[in-house]
Amino acid sequence: MNNSNIPLTPKECDVSNFPYMPIEIDRLLNSETWILGDDSEKVASMTLWLKSWSQVPAASIPNNDKMLAHLSGMGTKWKKVKDHVLRGWVDGGDGRLYHHVVAEKALEAWIEKLANAISGAHGNAKRWSIEIDTSELEGQLCDAVYRLKSIAPQSKALTKKIAKMVESRSQPVSGGDTDPNSQGIAIESKENVNRIDINKHTQGANQKSEQDDSWKPDSNFLLNVIRESMGAHAESILSMSDYQFHLGNFNAHWENRPDLTENQRTRKFAVWLIGEFKKQSSGNQQGKPRNKSQSINLNVNDDWNNQPKDDQPFHGTVQLPEGMI
């Protein structure tokens, strides 16, 4: 166990709602912790890795032997396996131990969670024409990106659009020989908080690039798919004035499903557009002004004016059924 004095994940990092922890099988099976450990040490090591995933901060465990004996499931055997099980864990200086590999996976999930939250907030703000302050989320995102870059620069998460955007718009806190943050991690402090505000940046090349990289459907295929259920209304749906807005919301909603085929994604977008078109059509019908010639008459007696009036005396013979008198 080493001493880093810097938590590998931020204090608010919570990925407990991610039910699966990514595990690189070859990396695990070829690690010294796994190869050199006996059965009890392997079980305890794996248990602590998994337990740390749902802790807050994620990828951390309490630096307390009684707690570790309980969390690892080793009980009274903890001291026997402790030295081997804690290989790869570092002291964060906050009373907790952090694991580099678990922290890498946790930060990747945390970045995804923050990016989705920011994207959703921006979409809702545009949809409802309201202002939503996302500066705190953006500060946490910037911090997470640079923490991940410091411990796992090879992470694929750093090649995604949101991470590239953060790196291009903000610079990490620079470390030095006398700087306790020598790794250059963007940590929160009263003196220096590394934050970005996407809302304050002008629409430059980065935003244009981000938009160009987003998924766009094949217009002819999309038109044919919509025609299957909407017929002649298909052209009206594709010509909606807020088509691009709906496309942006759709991409943000399905951003984390790269497994979708082009066919599946296009059909889902078609359903999305049809739903939005029906909402607009319903709203337009409800909002149409009533024709002046169709003014509402509140006099209930007027309805009798159109009824046939026949109050003349009757002259004739009426046949009554037998037995009626």
Which secondary structure elements does this structure contain, and how are they paired or packed?
Elements: E1 2-3, H1 25-29, H2 32-36, H3 39-53, E2 60-62, H4 65-72, H5 78-85, E3 89-91, E4 96-99, H6 100-128, H7 135-151, H8 161-169, H9 205-213, H10 219-230, H11 234-238, H12 243-253, H13 262-287
Parallel strand pairs: 1-3
Antiparallel strand pairs: 2-4, 3-4
Helix pairs in contact: 3-5, 6-7, 6-12, 10-13, 12-13
Region (Disordered): 189-217, 280-325
Protein name: DUF1376 domain-containing protein
Biased composition (Polar residues): 280-307
Question: For the report, how would you describe the main beta sheet?
Answer: 4 strands, mixed
The helix/strand series, from N terminus to C terminus, equals: EHHHEHHEEHHHHHHHH
Overall pLDDT level: 79
What kind of oligomer do you see?
Answer: single chain
Helix content: 40-55%
Give the N-to-C terminal Cα separation. Answer: 113 Å
Low-confidence regions: 171-211
Q: Give the class from helix and strand content and strand pairing.
A: mainly alpha
Q: Beta-sheet strand percentage?
A: under 5%
**Order of strands in the sheet with the most strands?**
1-3-4-2
Radius of gyration: 33 Å
Care to count the β-strands? Answer: 4
Instruction: Enumerate how many helices there are, as a single number.
Output: 13
Total domain count: 3
Shape: elongated
Organism: Acinetobacter tandoii DSM 14970 = CIP 107469
Protein name: DUF1376 domain-containing protein
Region (Disordered): 189-217, 280-325
Biased composition (Basic and acidic residues): 189-200
